[in-house]
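PROTEIN DESIGN WORKSHEET
SECTION A - STRUCTURE
LENGTH: 633
TOKENS:
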């Protein structure tokens, strides 16, 4: 029987296998500064002399605004860690990790994990790239396997060719319309079909980037002549390798999408899965338009925007910003005049960084409408809770900015045609690679990581919070202005669930040491960012278990890594039998998990019994019993 692309990559990388999970060798890792500090503190605690991967890269792209000393201190910590452990260091200003990694490091057939949920961007070049918590990245850097549930492979055939004004962003929004943001855990998407030959690597990367919003483990394209051409333009043709599925390859699920039927799409508040056609809702006034992020900031994206803006002006009531994805892109549009056209139109040119996407800059005004080309529009993620954020393509964003209203770009006129350059402007001078036995810099905001205690024999505690469906890691552990505390768990923990319940952290701390703290959630608990702090900080607050209708893959792995037991309602309706402040008990939980026996929760307050289930490998059980991976040495 033939093999698909996912199977071909995994076959070369599986080093451990059990009934329900596989351990794979990791070739490459990446971190960014918001997650990297914790990841490298964890790596240090392992006592490893140097990295065991083919390459690891530390990017600074999140906390670049640097209000206060904390971010700058973290950046110097990261720079000196990179020098000590032989890690590439991409300096602030060099660009967004996923854009730069696609340009300079990602390779077909290689495995990559990154402490950022949009790491699958590199699937556009044929890498099997997976988002993970920082601790998993640290473990992989030490040469140990990275574990995922045995994946199912979903084939999405893209047939035909996109029409004018339809873009890769519209394709992935169509995928989100079909798959939604829940129910896809355990799948890897593999793209195929006769239409992929009409998509460039940056367009493919837009699609794999936002695949993260569906909840799949990763998304990957074949490596073909288009891949080879992109790598040639990056002066990396010698790193290219063909990668394609066999003609008789098998898949667990197949979806067909006709590219010539794709129309301009929009994800409406407050979920990337709330997708409509632009023409269905066009006409609303827009207050802010922002173009950029790791989803839509490539050379092609920004040149389309510059052509739309040329010799035109943005209305005075529209706040308009553009963030090139990398220094390479910024340099190229500066050289060919595209940047001048943007500036002349009235655009604010923002730093080549994550910026507005993560809510640490460009927060919109109260009760406003913001159109953005990034990948997430969760409530409050922009930094303004009352704002309504819509996700669109660069084409829709630019045309709408000019009109001051959400506009179907097909009404603009002729679609600009972008001629790609013979080669990209390659300048790696802001990527540092040197090895020296330096002293690692530690500012006062860098605090040693707390460790958990071993798993108790039984859990007796209180429900400290009950949240609904689609609770994201932004709800659990807000970012934005609080990102500077990522290396200070004690301080950051004060803000757990702050957008939902500002008393949560204080109540947990007052309860810690008396009763165990428990969280109850609905469907797709923990979706969104890979931030391990959404598990690390609750662990510090004394949370011992999360009980939900379903838990997303990365967050479940993070909970286990920090010794928090992930449990699932056997019957979804039992969610209604438990509430905040209920006192509960799970007797002999450790022994029952050892014996693979069913778990029964007793709701003492309501005199109810609730059946719970779990899916844990023997490896995961041992991590939980120890109180987390950091306790296992």
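SECTION B - SEQUENCE
RESIDUE ASSIGNMENT:
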């Amino acid at each position: 029987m033939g093999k698909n692309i996912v199977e071909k990559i995994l076959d070369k990388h599986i080093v451990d296998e059990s009934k329900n999970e596989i351990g794979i060798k990791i070739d490459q890792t990446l971190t960014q500064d918001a997650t990297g500090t914790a990841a490298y503190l964890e790596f240090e605690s392992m006592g490893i002399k140097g990295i065991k991967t083919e390459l690891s890269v530390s990017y600074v792209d999140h906390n670049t605004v640097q209000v206060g000393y904390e971010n700058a201190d973290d950046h110097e910590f990261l720079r000196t860690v990179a020098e000590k452990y032989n890690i590439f260091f991409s300096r602030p200003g060099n660009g967004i990790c996923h854009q730069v990694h696609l340009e300079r490091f990602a390779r077909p057939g290689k495995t990559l994990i990154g402490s950022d949920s949009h790491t699958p961007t590199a699937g556009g070049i044929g890498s099997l790239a997976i988002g993970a918590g920082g601790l998993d990245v640290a473990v992989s850097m030490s040469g140990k396997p990275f574990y995922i549930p045995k994946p199912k492979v979903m084939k999405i055939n893209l047939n035909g060719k996109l029409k004018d004004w339809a873009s890769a962003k519209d394709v992935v929004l169509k995928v989100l319309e079909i798959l939604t943001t829940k129910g896809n855990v355990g799948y890897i998407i593999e793209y195929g079909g006769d239409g992929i030959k009409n998509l460039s690597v940056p367009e493919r990367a837009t699609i794999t980037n936002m695949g993260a919003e569906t909840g799949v483990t990763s998304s990957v394209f074949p490596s073909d002549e288009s891949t080879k051409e992109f790598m040639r333009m990056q002066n990396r043709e010698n790193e290219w390798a063909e990668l394609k599925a066999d003609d008789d390859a098998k898949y667990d699920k197949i979806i067909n999408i006709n590219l010539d039927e794709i129309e301009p799409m929009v994800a409406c508040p407050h979920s990337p899965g709330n997708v409509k056609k632009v023409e269905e809702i066009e006409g609303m006034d827009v207050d802010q338009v922002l173009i950029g992020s790791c989803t839509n900031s490539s050379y092609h994206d920004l040149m389309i925007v510059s052509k739309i803006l040329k010799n035109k002006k943005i209305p005075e009531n529209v706040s308009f910003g553009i963030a090139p994805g990398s220094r390479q892109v910024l340099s190229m549009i500066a050289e060919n005049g595209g940047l001048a056209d943007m500036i002349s139109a009235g655009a604010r040119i923002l730093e080549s960084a994550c910026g507005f996407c993560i809510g640490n800059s460009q927060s919109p005004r109260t009760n406003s409408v913001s159109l953005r080309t990034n990948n997430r529009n969760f409530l409050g993620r922009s930094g303004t809770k009352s704002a309504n954020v819509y996700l669109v393509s660069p084409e829709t964003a630019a045309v709408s900015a000019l009109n001051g209203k959400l506009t179907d770009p097909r009404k603009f006129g002729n679609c600009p045609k972008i001629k790609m350059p013979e080669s990209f402007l390659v300048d790696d001078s802001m990527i540092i690679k040197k090895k020296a036995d330096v002293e690692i810099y530690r500012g006062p905001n860098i605090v040693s990581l707390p460790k958990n205690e071993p798993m108790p024999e039984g859990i007796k505690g209180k429900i400290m919070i009950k949240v609904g469906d689609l609770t994201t890691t932004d709800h659990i552990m807000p970012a934005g202005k609080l990102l500077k505390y990522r290396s200070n768990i004690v301080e950051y923990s004060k803000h757990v669930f702050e957008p939902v319940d500002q008393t949560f952290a204080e109540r947990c701390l007052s309860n810690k040491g008396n009763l165990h703290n428990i969280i109850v959630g609905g469907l797709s608990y923990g979706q969104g960012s890979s931030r391990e702090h959404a598990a690390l900080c609750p662990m510090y607050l004394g949370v011992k278990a999360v009980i939900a209708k379903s838990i997303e893959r990365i967050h479940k792995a993070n909970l286990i890594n920090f010794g928090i037991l992930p449990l699932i309602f056997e019957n979804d309706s039992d969610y209604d039998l438990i509430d905040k402040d209920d006192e509960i008990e799970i007797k002999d939980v450790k022994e029952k998990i050892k014996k693979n026996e069913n778990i029964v929760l007793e709701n003492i307050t309501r005199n109810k019994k609730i059946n719970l289930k779990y899916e844990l490998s023997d490896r995961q059980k041992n991590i939980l019993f120890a109180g987390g991976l950091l306790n296992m040495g």
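SECTION C - NOTES
The CA atoms of residues 159 and 195 lie 4 Å apart.
DSSP finds 20 helices and 27 strands in the chain.
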